[in-house]
Amino acid sequence: MLENFWFSLNVSLPIFLLLAAGFGIKRLNLLDDSFFSQASSLVFTVALPAKLFYDTATSDFSRFNPAFILVCMLGTTAFFLIAWGVGALMLRKVPQKVGAFAHGSFRGNYVYIGFALMQNILGTDVIPLSATLASAFVLPLYNVYAVILLTVTGSHGRRVRPGEILLQVVKNPMILGIVAGLPFALLHVRLPFALTQSLDYLGNLCTPLALLVIGASIRFSDIAHDIRPILGACSIKLVLQPLVMVSIGLLLHMTHEELLVLFVLFGVPAAANVYIVTRKMGGDAQLASGIIVVSVLLSMFTMTAGIFLLRTAGIV
Known about the structure:
By secondary structure, the chain is an all-alpha fold. It has a single domain (2-312), classed as Na+/H+ antiporter like fold (Up-down Bundle), CATH 1.20.1530.20. It has 13 helices and no strands. It has helices at 2-27, 33-57, 66-90, 98-106, 110-122, 129-153, 162-170, 173-186, 193-216, 227-251, 256-267, 273-280, 285-312. Helix 2 (33-57) crosses helix 9 and helix 11 (256-267) packs antiparallel against helix 13 (285-312). The longest helix has 28 residues, at 285-312. The radius of gyration is 19 Å and the shape is globular. The relative contact order is 0.19.
C-alpha cells in the first residue's frame, strides 16, 4: 500500500514542481511575458505537432480499437451537455457566467499535463497509440463545443458558423501533426534516423516548456469572487468525469492502457485554452481563469489519489 502511494506521488509531483517553477520564474520576473508567449507558440505550433507526428508515424495500428475512441467522444459530448445544464441551473441569476463555467468543466489540459502524466506512469517518452488517437478525435470536439457554447451563451448575438468551426479544426497544428503521421504508420514506412532524432529533440522540448508556461499563467487573484462556481466546475472536471468514465471502461472490459487513458483524459485540470477562448468570445474570463488555477491546484490531490487507486487495482 505504501509503495503504491509513493509511486503515485512520484509520477504526479514532478508535473506540479514544474508548474510551481513556472509560477516562481514569472513572479520573480526572471523571464517576462514575451518569453512565455513565444514559448507557448513554440510548443503549440512546433514541438507538440512534431511529437504527435513521430508518435503517430511509429505506431502499430493493428491495436487500434474504434470502440475506445467512440467512448472517448461520447463521454466528452455527455459531459459537455452535463456541464452546460449544471451551469444553467447553478448560475441562473448570472447567466453571463454559464459559458465560462461549462467550458472549464468539460475541457481538460489533456495534451500538456495529460501526456506528461502518462509518460511518468509508463516510464517512457512515447505516447501510447490510444492516447494519441484520443487526442485526434477529442481535441476537435473541444473546439467545436466551445464555439457553440460560448456563441449561444454570449451576449453578442453571434450565430454558430459551421464553416468557421471546421476551419479552426483543420488548421490546428496538433491535428495536422497526427494526420501527417498516419500514412507513415499505415504504410509501414520507416523514418530515417536523422529525421527521428530531430523529431525526438523537438518532442523533448514539449513537456517541460508547456508546464512552465502553464505555471507562469496562474493568477490567484481570479479566485475569490467566484469560489462557488469554481469549486462546482472543479468537482465535475476532476472527480465526476474520471470516476464515471473509468467505471464505464471497467464495465466494457477495456485494456489497462485504455483505462489509464480514460482516467487521464477525463481527470486532468482545465486547459489554458479555456481562458483564451472564453476571453476571445466575450465570456467571463475571470471565472475561466479561476477554474484553471483551482483545478490545477486540486488536481495534485485528485490525480495522485486516482493513480494510487489504479495502481492498487493493478491497472498501472
